[in-house]
Amino acid sequence: MISAKVRGAVMCAVLLLAAACSGGGPAGERQSARDTPRAGSSDAGKNADGDVMTSKNVRQVAHVPRAAPLDGDMDWNTDLAFQGDYAFVGNFGGFTIYDISDPKQPKTVSQVSCPAQQNDVSVHGDLLVLSVDEPRSGEGCDSNADVRDWEGLRIFDISDKKSPKYVTAVRTDCGSHTHTMVPAGETLYVYVSSPGPEPDSKTCPPPHEIIQVVEIPTKSPKDAKVVASPEIFPDHQDTDFAAGCHDITAYPEKKLAAAACFGDGVLLDISDPVRPKVLQQFRDTENFEIWHSATFNNDATKVIFSDELGGGSQATCDSRTPRTKGANAIYDLKDGKLERRGYFKIGREQQEVENCVAHNGSLIPVPGKDVMVQAWYQGGVSVWDFTDSAKPREIGFFERGPYGGGGDIAGSWSAYYYNGYIYSSDIREGLDVLEIDDPLTDPAKKVRMPDFNVQTQKTY
User: Is the pTM of the predicted complex or chain greater than 0.85?
Assistant: First the structure.
């Protein structure tokens, strides 16, 4: 989701979109929401028909609605992270920790009220990091948005999951739209991605052709600080929307990172995490509007870049929008260079009142195959196979009808696979747990991960 800094430009853009989306996709079946196990109180009925639709190989096994104090109209669920038997869900109002030891019966362990946009979350050891991409009166959770003096990262101690404690915060230029962890022994480096600049802003002055590197000593996190601001654009960025980066995915084992920087895709060498080096910078102005995120395949021979056409607020999954826009571009990495091979976009026609575009997803750890699960806002959750880079195909899905009858921003913000199940953070509806039973994905059920932060990939 694009922040307030650039949302206005995105919403005002004139998009002359021709060509047609092809139909197709797995045959679906309706599953009554009343038949789905639920934890907590139900807010069923907000959807047009009260039902969800799934492919025959996907079923919803649990649902936890948003709950007070994180259930206000603008308390949107955002990103997800995992550690052991716990799931961590960011929210514009703070974050929630769930016990997922039984994925079919998630239980709320604690909720922390700490308002900010957008509170994307990651976890490392006893530390939780939140991205704050909104100028506020101060670094603490008691700050407000009336005075616009500070934005950046907040850090919490989560050694006691029932009682997380605020530790400190780090101010960063233009805040932190998203962030990426690069662990290095007892030091945790965090790459901060943020759009900008904002002329006359106290927190986001021009120019802004950079990412920022925050160093967090894991034994003394209160001493966290910005240690580098590398300029990663050898050819200066030039877009109608923003400079800086939207998202960076690091693959420390491969010493690589892929950065989605609004108008650019960038491949980085992170052998020295404080001094990333640009290996390749490229654009696709014909098909991509906003380079949103990146995902390596397991052996780092491919990278998926997504396009968040319309900033996440528009209906782009319809027959009026070209199949290459608001989609995923599949690049093969050969001889150190990325070459585009194909595109993937869900083929299920969405209504004109449903915001829908490629958003956050992760690999499903199938040995020898390239399979991904991904959120598409009101397009739901898609499972797709890109083993053949030129011929990707959807193999499963989950989606609801239009939220509130249509017209509201809603749907799945992030959908990730973790230890046998898919977890979807739905902006309005809460946490969904899905299970896929398919010969292609079944081998993934044998893969166990001790933790998972999607922007920091690990070999499975």
Answer: yes
